[in-house]
Amino acid sequence: MERDVSNFSLLVLIVFVMIPFTISYFYQLGLKKDILWSSVRGAVQLFLIGLILTYLFDLPPLIGIPIMLSVMITIATFHARKKGKELPNAFLTILLGLVTIEIFVLGLWLGFDMVSFTPEEIIPMSGMVIGNSMVAMGLSLERMKAEFNTNEGKILAALSLGATPKQASHITVRRTLNAALIPNIDQLKTIGLVQLPGMMTGLILGGVPPIVAIKYQLVISISIFSTVSISAIIVSLVMYRFFYNEKMQLVDFEELKNKNG
Amino acid sequence: MSNHVFELSEVNKRVLQNINLTVNQGGRVMVFGPSGSGKSTLLHLFNRLEDPDSGEIKYQGQPIEDYNIPKLRKDVGLVLQQPYLFSETVIDNLKYGPKMFNEWDEAFVDELLDYVNLPKAYLDKPVEDLSGGEKQRVSLARTLANKPKVLLLDEPTSALDDQNIESIEEDLLKLMDAWQLTIIMVTHNLKQAMRLGTKGIYLESGKIVETGKLPNLIEHPQTDSLKNFTANQ
């Protein structure tokens, strides 16, 4: 029989929430409202997703999976774009990037029979890939803006010497990629040593033998590793162009901000 | 064919208003005026780091838009106020421009170093180890490595001490004679303008208030604003 957490046990979780709440109260951290709101919001969100997933899992895979993937990609796009609102085409770049990534992993998983085409497998695994890619794209955008800001003088110097935008952005793009990839590589290095990855934990709790759980974990970890890299590359190699106009001139950040709100 | 390297007619760009001016072949034009008067913006227009909002710029008789942009920027070299060196060695900085055009000439290095008064031993030095004056020299040499026909200088000596100023000025004079360079230089130092320039342009609040031959323009200003500006130096 499948194991379940009883409703009473769930209620006991309130104790866990009360600990940071009490700390905030005693030390006057001003976080009480945030703690309560995020706990309630988190719980409600998860239950809602649970209900939606139950509904989607009952639909034929060819209908349920595309619906859920579209929703996930759309939300992820809106979220990642927040980091680069003033940049033109950020939305489109992220959206197309996430779609490409999803097609890429689906091709890999299904093509080599790593995952079966069922909502139970595709949706949570795609969620992990899309979520991680979303974070990577947002970080890359943020990093790229910061790099362009700090290196504006050097970029102007390069342009003034006859560099094309591609040549003038070389160092900026390299640094953005570096910054996005290093934590990703570090994470893969310590996987399983510091904390057991979420998916594996879930499978083991669900009664799957650890070796099988690890195989699944490897599939998802390597997929995330590769898609996060692709995300950073897409953002870096596409977005730097929008810091210039067609006359190979650096676009004014302030002007851009005013134009795109 | 006209003797004009640059011709600006009714150019407007941000603070700059209705700028009309010509720069002759081999001319040594000094642009001066209070800060915020649009001097740097004017230099950016010649190198196309920026384009005017309205008006026309001609380079060697042709609209500036007709030229290939990287090629134009190579021909009309700009030395920025801050050196903004690329964080590698001196030689990497010197090679930067010519390598993009596949025109790097190893034999030219000695001549280049000679013009900017830097010893050959400096070539492999990381730029972080250079003094302010040395950085400015490398920045000048980096632009010269492209063998420009016109040299734009944005207050290249503003952060330097008198000794360094004097020696960079000597380098520039040597260069202008040897290369027949056309120079457009922004400076706040009127004595420097008189030492280096043949033509002066006085800009205030984005407008050309007075222009004329140097040193006459500075010694005998006609307008009250230039009189005030020279009196405050």
TrEMBL record, chain A:
Indicate the principal place this protein occupies in or around the cell: membrane
User: Is-annotated flag, keyword Membrane?
Assistant: yes
Domain of life, per lineage = Bacteria
Q: Tell me where in or outside the cell this protein is found.
A: Membrane
**InterPro entries from the xrefs?**
UPF0014_fam
Membrane topology designation: Multi-pass membrane protein
Q: Which residues cross the membrane?
A: 6-27, 87-110, 122-141, 191-212, 218-240
List the keywords (alphabetical). Membrane, Transmembrane, Transmembrane helix
Q: In the UniProt record, which is one GO cellular component term?
A: plasma membrane
- In the UniProt record, the signal sequence range is none
Record-stated family = Belongs to the UPF0014 family.
| The protein, known as | Iron export ABC transporter permease subunit FetB
Which gene does this sequence derive from? Answer: fetB
UniProtKB/TrEMBL annotation, chain B:
User: What is this protein's record name?
Assistant: Phosphate ABC transporter ATP-binding protein
Listed GO molecular functions?
ATP binding; ATP hydrolysis activity; phosphate transmembrane transporter activity
Q: What is the lineage of its organism?
A: Bacteria, Bacillati, Bacillota, Bacilli, Bacillales
Pfam entry (one): ABC_tran
Gene3D superfamilies assigned: P-loop containing nucleotide triphosphate hydrolases (3.40.50.300)
Could you provide one GO biological process annotation from this protein's UniProt record? phosphate ion transmembrane transport
The yes or no answer to whether the keyword tRNA processing is present is: no
Top-level lineage group: Bacteria
Q: Which residues form the ABC transporter domain?
A: 1-230
Q: Cellular component terms, GO, for this chain's entry?
A: membrane
User: Key word Amino-acid biosynthesis present in the record?
Assistant: no
Q: Which UniProt keywords apply?
A: ATP-binding, Nucleotide-binding, Transport
Record's SMART domains? AAA (SM00382)
